[in-house]
């Protein structure tokens, strides 16, 4: 996050704001691509179409028709986008497995300080010292207030990331941009004349992309999954389950089972009084889980198969 902020601010000195916003509008697509490798979440075809439509709509809305800048500014802006995508996806995975939002803020704060310190020392130190001498104790109040606001923002951002996903957070960020454009045209005097037909088309495209993405996620939730992002993760869990096969004579009920959303239906066709061969193998449907057990004729008395949904 520190590199994202510093590189983005530095790029604004080299390129125009319009070009910067165009490149940062691609954030949902970049985060979705990074999440495939970091979080092992693969978007479905509908979600991918929705992300592309949303990104295109935001680009059309924020682009002012001309862009200026140099190669260095474009390069550091793209690097900032990649750093932001990596941070979002990594934080999403860490929050879903190991820590809460305040712990994440606690561990990332020293790293951010070390990353930003060289930028401050070489680019802003002299001007900051002059400002501090002129304003005295007010500088301390400004720093403390800014730090408090930054902590509140990071905690809120991480909580949203924990409750949703890295891609969903970037989608909401794009919708925020469209909302600001529409509200500024509706509320601020003179802004309505700046809201062109091109911006209207872009906002409509972005809203349609957001609605399509929301529909895909809601439909996946109703089916009992979490979209295409669970496909790779479920297969990985299935592979890990293979090393926890049952030992000789261990009851079937003691098998280590994956979480319900990652477990397939196990069908055990046994009846009291019917003997089963030693080391009988029962394969879960779709190859998601395997249970190897020594099933005796008495196993049916203490195990009743259930259908998991």
TrEMBL record:
Lineage, highest ranks first: Eukaryota, Viridiplantae, Chlorophyta, core chlorophytes, Trebouxiophyceae
Alphabetically ordered keywords of this record: Membrane, Transmembrane, Transmembrane helix
Domain Sugar phosphate transporter as annotated: residue spans: 7-214
RNA-binding among keywords: no
Keyword Transmembrane: yes
Membrane spanning stretches: 48-65, 71-92, 104-123, 135-155, 167-189, 195-213
Topology relative to the membrane: Multi-pass membrane protein
Name listed for the protein in its UniProt record: Sugar phosphate transporter domain-containing protein
Pfam families (alphabetical): TPT (PF03151)
Cell compartment(s), UniProt: Membrane
């Amino acid at each position: 996050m520190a590199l994202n902020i510093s590189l983005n601010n530095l790029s604004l000195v080299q390129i125009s704001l319009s070009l910067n916003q165009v490149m940062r509008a691609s954030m949902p697509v970049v985060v979705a691509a990074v999440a495939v490798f970091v979080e092992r979440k693969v978007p479905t075809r509908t979600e991918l179409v929705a992300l592309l439509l949303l990104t295109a709509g935001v680009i059309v809305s924020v682009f002012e028709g001309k862009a200026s800048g140099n190669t260095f500014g474009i390069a550091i802006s793209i690097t900032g986008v990649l750093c932001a995508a990596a941070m979002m996806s990594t934080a999403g995975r860490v929050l879903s497995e190991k820590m809460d939002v305040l712990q994440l803020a606690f561990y990332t704060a020293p790293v951010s300080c070390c990353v930003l310190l060289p930028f401050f020392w070489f680019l802003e130190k002299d001007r900051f010292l002059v400002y501090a001498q002129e304003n005295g104790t007010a500088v301390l109040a400004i720093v403390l207030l800014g730090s408090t606001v930054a902590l509140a923002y990071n905690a809120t951002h991480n909580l949203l990331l924990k409750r949703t996903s890295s891609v969903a957070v970037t989608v909401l960020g794009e919708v925020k941009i469209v909302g600001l454009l529409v509200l500024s045209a509706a509320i601020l005097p003179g802004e309505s004349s700046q809201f062109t037909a091109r911006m209207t088309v872009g906002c409509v495209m972005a809203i349609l992309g957001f609605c399509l993405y929301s529909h895909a996620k809601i439909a996946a939730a109703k089916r009992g999954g979490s979209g295409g992002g669970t496909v790779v993760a479920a297969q990985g869990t299935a592979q890990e389950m293979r090393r926890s096969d049952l030992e000789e004579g261990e009851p079937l009920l003691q098998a280590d089972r994956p979480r319900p959303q990652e477990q397939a239906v196990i069908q055990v066709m046994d009846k009291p009084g019917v003997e089963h061969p030693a080391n009988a193998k029962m394969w879960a449907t779709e190859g998601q889980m395997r249970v190897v057990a020594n099933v005796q004729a008495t196993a049916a008395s203490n195990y009743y198969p259930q259908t998991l949904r």
